[in-house]
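Provenance

Sequences were taken from public entries as deposited. Structures were produced by running a predictor on each sequence independently, with no templates supplied. The record for Cytochrome c domain-containing protein from Pseudomonas zhanjiangensis is shown for reference.
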Amino acid sequence: MFRSVASLIGLVVLPVLVLGAGEPGEKSIREGDLESRVDALASIQPGLGVVMHEIGYRFAALYWAAKGGNWGLAQYQLKELGEAQEVAEVTRPRRREMLKAFEGSYLAPLRKAIEAQDGDAFGKRFLQAQQGCNACHTALGYGFIQVHVPESPVPGILDYSLKSEPRN
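Predicted structure for Cytochrome c domain-containing protein:
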């Protein structure tokens, strides 16, 4: 009898140990009430630094794409940059207004220059966007973060000199 009770306990306890029921109060996206599951998801969202890394990469890539005449790639990089910024607007709502202002003041004119394939307008708008980035960082107390374009494209798999058109 003892043996069958021990076996029954083993059948119940062992899967819990193997499957990792976790400690009480441990965060889980699959277990618990809806509010605790949402809190667990919110707690693993990327910080603004992670999102800004993505934005910075896209910013430099769109510069080199436009400079190389790959306007389709420049447009794509700007679109992806905007999507990364949307993540920041949702996950860091205290920064939403500033991010939206940056989008309207700098990214929209940059988009128009890309669509027009206007290298001179692009250069001017890009410089303004770069200055806007740095002003924002300074205003938020992060003046030690100053954006600049690398002297050459970041090595990788993208062909910045492929001639292409922006998409409609």
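The chain has a mean pLDDT of 85.
The helical segments are 2-19, 34-43, 48-67, 71-91, 96-115, 119-139.
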